[in-house]
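Comment thread on ticket #2218

A.B. wrote:
> Attaching the input chain for the structure job we discussed in standup.
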Amino acid sequence: MSEIALPTDRSSDELDRLASLAEDVIRRARAAGASQAEVAASIDTGLSVNVRLGEVETVEHTRDRGFGLTVYFGQRKGSASTADLNPDSIQATIDQACAIARYTEEDPAAGLADAALMATDFPDLDLWHPWAIDTAGAIALGQRIEDAGRAHAGISNSDGAGVQMGESLSVYANSHGFVGRERGTRHSISLSLIAGDEAGMQRDYWYDSVRDAAKFMDARALGDKAAERTLMRLGARSLSTRQCPVLFAPELARGLIGHLVGAVSGGALYRRASFLLDHVGQAVMPAWMNIAERPRLIGGQASGAFDAEGVATRDSALVEGGVLARYVLGSYSARKLGLATTANAGGIHNLIVDAGSADGERSDFAGMLQRLGTGLLVTEVMGQGVSTTTGDYSRGASGFWVEQGKIVYPVEEITIAANLRDMFRGIQAVGADVDPRSHILTGSILLDRMTVAGE
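C.D. wrote:
> Ran it. Output below, let me know if you need it in another format.
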């Protein structure tokens, strides 16, 4: 895209400034009596433009700063934060954190992660790709995207095109002497369109999200994709209540894996609020399934050399041969459970869900439709009807009814329901049609059956 250019890059200087400030604050917190201290500081900048019907709706430039301090007086913890980095505000933040810690109850699990676990190598993971697009360029790009979508016969209106540029600089430091610097970019383009016929109006969208703007899909192609998806929804109908196989499109399949992550994460486990409590070493998925975390994936959406506590990240299996290999823990939740951190303070890193099936074959999206045969393809879910505690899953949905591997008609106003325990065990295949726009990298997922409730 012609708007892409390399800006003057001052990110290293900004990171050095944040690191120096963090180290100074830690020294001052220790001088005030803290036995341990940690600082997380960040600067986020961005540009967001929205265009609708060819006209500019919003333009927003952002520059947000954050500075958070946590201190420990033994096993008493206090935290305070500020968005103002002037000396008086920083001193007030130190005073507040220390005051809080002096009056909180002791928590045996409180404290920094173990010093021996701190990251010591910081490879370039190719996460920094500044996009020197200005407001005029972003508006022009949004207009091209929208024009491409609106050019399709049957598209009657637009909810608008969006162009977002984002840069993030962050430093994490603690009193072990660890100082970790990270910088990353994330850019996106999107379009939402509306079409109508005698049966009513339909809306759909498409978007692309990348670290490097040079890797965006073509503006016209994104407009075409959004229009195609919108027009395919015309004539949608409901279904009678039934049980049938269900295929989750790749952009929704990652949500299923996200529910797995939520159920095996520390907070749910030590509160004993997970249907997968005490399931490490047990089969939770079919024997052919493998899911692995790859935190140092080059250019990954959630790559990092260390977690939010400075613990070095490493490749590891989450599900191996269908068996849950481990939980997802930071140091606090690990101590609560009597286990070791898995370097997941702050969340999971890149998850790779291997494509495959019981017969060993890998299928593209067309092949996954053939595997589905006759059943429901889900392309949108709505509502929050998922319980990590019980595994119950019930959500509004829309998509397409499929017969003999071919899409027959769109469906809407239905509910899909099952239990996550049965859904995970009932996975029939994972497609090779991976959606790269997320830190959960999976293709479409075919389930043996769910209850579909409609008319």
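A.B. wrote:
> Thanks. Noting for the ticket: The chain is about 25% helix and 35% strand.
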